[in-house]
Design a protein that fits this description.
The complex is a heterodimer of chains A (about 350) and B (about 375). By secondary structure, chain A is an all-alpha fold. Chain A folds into 2 domains: about 90 residues, no CATH class; about 240 residues, MetI-like fold, CATH 1.10.3720.10. Chain A is about 70% helix and about 0% strand. Chain A has 13 helices and no strands. In chain A, helix 5 packs across helix 12. The two termini of chain B are about 25 Å apart. Chain B is flat. In chain B, helix 3 runs parallel beside helix 6, helix 4 runs antiparallel to helix 6 and helix 6 packs across helix 8. The longest helix of chain B is centred in the first third of the chain and has 37 residues. Chain B is built from 11 helices and 2 strands, in the order ααββααααααααα. By secondary structure, chain B is mostly helical. The chains are: A mainly alpha (about 350), B mainly alpha (about 375). Chains A and B meet through helix 3, helix 5, helix 6, helix 7 and helix 8 of A and helix 1, helix 2, helix 3, helix 4 and helix 5 of B.
């Protein structure tokens, strides 16, 4: 090392494609795709094919241009970036389509009669009818399921976080996670085998098994329990240890510390988790279909007799061989989605206000 | 932060001695000053100075502890109970089955004299539709996850992530209805196009009718598992240590090379787990497939022909008119589904558990 001299011959700056180049390539690719596929009828033509072809041509053109100017590594980088963004656009298409269809088709029966009537005395080929009984059923079933699972789930999470040591706690933790993946139809079959076929005959005066809204609530509870336990566990872990230690230092027993310090601190997060679980359970069809039976009549009593829910209602009306069935199904779907989305969005907003956020 | 209101430290100290000893992390064994202690408070209060009292066996503390332990154990009880009760109800039907459950293709359990049913065609359909869904959803989901974790602007990413979460909130019956009534048209045309130009591939060998096929069911399933795969892999990508990323960039890697060499290898176990979770969901999805698959019990390489059935969809479709044996047969098929999904989920979770740093993401 004698003297530091700047190497005069090497370029520090890498050659880069100008900003307008990708735009130009995109335009050329679009025009070429229209010429090739739309007017040239290559592979049959059609707008979807043209769009896909345009994207592919754009990627090829971009990689060639970038490869010539910037080198192959930069070319690969550009192609990967474009692919990643296009994956995103691709995923938004079904969401937009579903939302558009829901609003478009669901508007048809969005009237007072729909929310005030049941399907009683409405035969297959009658207009009118409503989903009052189904809405009541969904609310009752989800409500009972929430009443069952919230104490169990929160207490289970308290066990895992505050008391659990050793193999039992690890096993519980592991199987809570595994249980979140149990198919909803299996939960329905379980309640069918356990509650409807084995327990319910002892509860009825005739000694016959019977369907009920409560059985549906039990099936939903099986689905909600792991979700609530898991989200509550996450939240309890976020409560700073210093709060617990401060309480212990004042001599507060552990259970009082948990109930009056740890749980209240984590409460907004716990409520968020519960709301998300309820939103998911309210939209479940399969388990309710197996154990609630479904009925065209109003049945506000969840403990006796068949009960309807919005999702079964959609399933029934969609399978109906009548021109009035499908509009009813779509309006019910719109109602259900509105209910679920309202819960979800409220939960997310609540989560934003939660001070215990991870990030 | 919630601030507990305590009457005074002296009273709190006496409460400590009145209740059972607490966890060792709390410094409660500090001797309380006897002069500050009010005389004889309540049932547990003690007048004499001495060692701390032993915890009572049936105090609030132990009751609370037992309650929480029992609640936690409920999960284990439920999983065992699911297996026990499904087996209990499946056995009579399996005994009545005149055909071999593991090799018979068709499903006619309601024949009063000659009930015959078997699982292979349904299991095959379940695997095929889940496989199609994974092939479509996984690359897209990974792209979205990378977009949210490394490409999009932070504020934009949180908004877009919210949109993807909304996709998860839409009930499956709505996706099923949408798939059956609206997606079926494009899929029918697409199937015809595939057959016309790529008919030499056995997958697209059928010459119609098209529409309610594995292709349609698989696409609908793909949309439904997209948010699950996305949300876990996004969290996993976010966990990549910034040090690894910066090291790759400092060595002159482009952004894509940085992702390939630093982000993806680090997150690979988490990615496998997220794919397994998506698989678990796809295997168990019921009502969307009951609406979008055409039914039938054929096994073949073709995925665009009308038809197809899965274990779960078969349960939903056949349950309404099932007899006693039929119900038991459906429960038996549900037991098979339960076993498959249990294994898949356990593998996924075991992978996640081996990497402690991914635990927080696996909600």
């Amino acid at each position: 090392m004698t003297a530091i001299t700047a190497p005069s011959t090497t370029r520090i700056h890498v050659r880069r494609l100008p900003v307008w180049a990708p735009v130009l390539i995109a335009v050329v690719a679009a025009v070429a795709a229209v010429l090739l596929f739309k007017t040239g009828k290559l592979l049959g033509g059609g707008w979807v094919l043209t769009a896909v072809g345009a994207v592919l041509l754009f990627l090829i053109g971009l990689s060639i241009a970038s490869g010539m100017v910037e080198g192959s590594r930069a070319a690969r980088n550009r192609v990967a970036t474009s692919l990643i963004y296009s994956a995103f656009v691709l995923a938004l298409l079904p969401l937009v389509s579903v939302v558009f269809t829901l609003i478009d088709k669901g508007r048809g029966r969005l009237d007072g009669a729909f929310f005030n009537n049941s399907m009683r005395n409405i035969t297959t080929f009658d207009a009118g009818g409503g989903a009052y009984h189904a809405i009541v059923g969904t609310l009752e079933q989800a409500g009972i399921a929430t009443l069952i699972t919230v104490p169990l789930g929160v207490a289970g999470a308290i066990y895992i976080v505050e008391y659990g040591r050793g193999r039992l706690a690890n096993a519980i933790r592991f199987f809570v996670d595994v249980m979140t993946g149990i198919p909803s139809i299996v939960a329905g079959l379980f309640i069918l085998a356990f509650w409807v076929l084995i327990v319910s005959p002892h509860l009825s005066s005739t000694g016959r098994p019977f369907y009920s809204g409560f059985a549906a609530a039990l099936a939903l509870a099986v689905l909600m329990l792991p979700t609530i336990t898991r989200s509550t566990e996450e939240m309890l872990r976020l409560v700073p240890a210093s709060l617990r230690e401060g309480s212990y230092a004042l001599g507060i027993p552990k259970w009082k510390t948990i109930m009056s310090i740890v749980v209240p601190t984590a409460l907004p997060g716990i409520v968020t988790g519960v709301m998300l679980a309820v939103a998911r359970a309210a939209g479940e069809t399969a388990p309710v279909l197996l154990v609630a039976g479904g009925t065209p009549n109003r049945n506000p009593n969840p403990f006796q007799g068949n009960q309807e829910s919005l999702s079964i209602y959609i399933y029934e009306q969609a399978s109906l061989a009548s021109k009035y069935g499908l509009p009813r199904a779509w309006t019910a779907a719109l109602t259900l989605v509105a209910l679920v989305l309202a819960l979800t969005i409220a939960a997310k907003l609540l989560a934003r206000r939660n001070k215990l956020n991870k990030g | 932060m919630t601030q507990p209101s305590f009457p005074g430290s002296a009273e709190a100290a006496s409460a400590a001695s009145a209740e059972s000893p607490v966890d060792s992390s709390g410094p409660t064994d500090t001797p309380s000053d006897p002069r500050q202690r009010p005389p004889a408070r309540g049932s547990g209060g003690q007048d004499t100075v001495g060692p701390l009292p032993r915890g009572s066996r049936f105090g609030s503390e132990s009751v609370f502890k037992w309650f929480t332990t029992a609640s936690g154990a409920t999960v284990l009880v439920i999983i065992v109970a699911i297996a026990v009760f499904l087996i209990l109800k499946a056995i009579p039907a399996l005994n009545a089955d005149k055909a071999n459950f593991w090799t018979h293709f068709e499903w006619f359990p309601d024949d009063p004299t000659n009930p015959q049913f078997g699982i292979p065609a349904l299991a095959f359909g379940t695997l095929v539709s889940a496989a199609i869904a994974l092939v479509i959803a996984v690359p897209i989901a990974l792209g979205i996850a990378l977009c949210l974790s490394h490409y999009a602007h932070r504020r934009l990413a949180s908004g877009l992530g919210f949109m993807i979460d909304l996709l998860a909130a839409v009930p499956s019956i709505v996706f099923g209805l949408w798939g059956r009534d609206y997606l079926v048209g494009p899929v029918r045309e697409f199937s015809g196009w595939l057959h016309h130009y790529f008919g030499w591939i056995p997958l697209f060998g059928s010459d119609g009718p098209y529409g309610k096929s594995y292709m349609l069911g698989g696409i609908v399933l793909a949309i439904m598992i997209l948010p699950i795969v996305t949300s876990l892999s996004r969290e996993v990508f976010r966990q990549t240590p910034p040090m690894n990323e910066e090291a790759a960039l400092a060595l002159g890697a482009t952004k894509w090379e940085m992702i390939r060499t630093a982000v993806i290898p680090y997150g690979r176990p988490g990615l496998i787990a997220s794919v397994m979770l998506g698989l678990g969901r796809a295997l168990g999805e019921t009502i969307a497939l009951a609406l979008t698959l055409g039914g039938g019990f054929l096994i073949g390489p073709d995925i665009i022909h009308n038809g197809g059935n899965t274990i779960a969809a078969n349960i939903a479709n056949k349950f309404g008119e099932a007899s006693e044996v039929g119900r038991g047969a459906l429960i038996a098929s549900g037991l098979v589904l339960f076993a498959i999904t249990l294994v898949v989920n356990m593998i996924a979770r075991a992978i996640v558990y081996r990497r402690r740093e991914f635990l927080g993401a696996a909600a």
